[in-house]
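BUG-275 | component: ligand-complex export | severity: low

The export step for S-adenosylmethionine jobs runs without errors, but we want the raw record kept on the ticket for reference. Input record follows.
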Amino acid sequence: MKTIPNEFTRFAHDGWQRVADKYDSVWSRVTRQFIPYLIDAAGVLAGMPVLDVACGPGYVSAAVKKLGANPTGIDFSKKMVEIATKMFPGITFREGDAQELPVRDASYDRVLMNFGLLHLSQPERACAEAFRVLRSGGKFGFTIWAEPHENPGGKIVNDAIEAHADLNVEMPEGPSKFLYADKEKCRKILERDGFDGKSVVFETDLVEWNVPTPYYLFEAERDAGVRTAGLLARQSSDRLDAIRRAIEDGVGRYAKRDGFAIPMAAHVIVASKCM
Ligand SMILES: C[S@@+](CC[C@H](N)C(=O)[O-])C[C@H]1O[C@@H](n2cnc3c(N)ncnc32)[C@H](O)[C@@H]1O
């Protein structure tokens, strides 16, 4: 598969290949909850060709297919593509880099990306690719996690890392995790990629992630994540213990009778390609 040959992409690719078989059981109960918001904001209709970029196990494709649209899923992880094909056998999934889509110009009515954009080394390039493969009048919709001040679950992990991690460890440099989290900046970036700035829809949605134990979130990040997992893997055992305790305390604040309900907020963003 053709990928952008840089250190962050290689790091991310190795990471997603490593955790692909854990993704569905660990993360999908939170990421899938945003799909109805994404589909609704992007106005997906029956009969539309839809490209599901960074599709992972294929949930967005499956959801738009239920509406009568014609999805194709693309992911740079061969394992993710295999899992998606097994989970949703009636849908086409293929390998490909979001930053260099193996897709003809102007061939889709919608390009959707649920929690994929900020896992890429060059998110702007992926937006430009989405623009290229959209027909005129088409829409690009994506989700990203909201910043910690708006996202209680994200804040738990962020605060624990800021307080206890050594941030000077060597890591492949990736994009800012909150590159698109400010509405105005986001609009300007999308405009630069060719989208109609006036068309940008930027909403914030909140869901509850029900987890069984206070250590679930730490273990999810350590064992089934990629970027944060890379940072955690480079910490001393004392620092790692302190991060784990801080995350457990944070999750503990959201205890309910049969587990923990972590509030998680994300932005749903949609931009149109002018006619
Ligand atoms: C957080 S998961 C999101 C999965 C899925 N879209 C969902 O709704 O849960 C991120 C996905 O992005 C994929 N990915 C990361 N970098 C990519 C790239 N450069 N090109 C294509 N896929 C990529 C990973 O393999 C992974 O499946």
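Assignee comment: Attached the raw record above. The chain has one domain: 7-272.
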